[in-house]
Amino acid sequence: MSRLEEEEQKYAFQVMKGVNKIEIKRAIEEKFEIEVENVATMNC
């Protein structure tokens, strides 16, 4: 695990272009059965 994963419980995912933060949050919550507090995105 990276430092961010261990200490701050932050994870990175690669998603399809055009997906918004709400869709990302819902997908992660459904897939991993957790509550997502915040989603930050960046274009690469």
Automatic annotation (TrEMBL):
Gene Ontology MF term list: structural constituent of ribosome
Q: Is Ribonucleoprotein tagged as a keyword?
A: yes
Task: Give the GO cellular component terms, alphabetically.
Answer: ribonucleoprotein complex; ribosome
GO terms in the biological process aspect are:
translation
UniProt keywords (A-Z) are: Ribonucleoprotein, Ribosomal protein
Q: Does the keyword Heme apply?
A: no
InterPro entries annotated for this entry? Nucleotide-bd_a/b_plait_sf, Ribosomal_uL23-like, Ribosomal_uL23/eL15/eS24_sf
Pfam families noted in UniProt:
Ribosomal_L23
Write out the similarity annotation.
Answer: Belongs to the universal ribosomal protein uL23 family.
Q: What is this protein called?
A: Uncharacterized protein
Query: What is the source species?
Result: marine metagenome
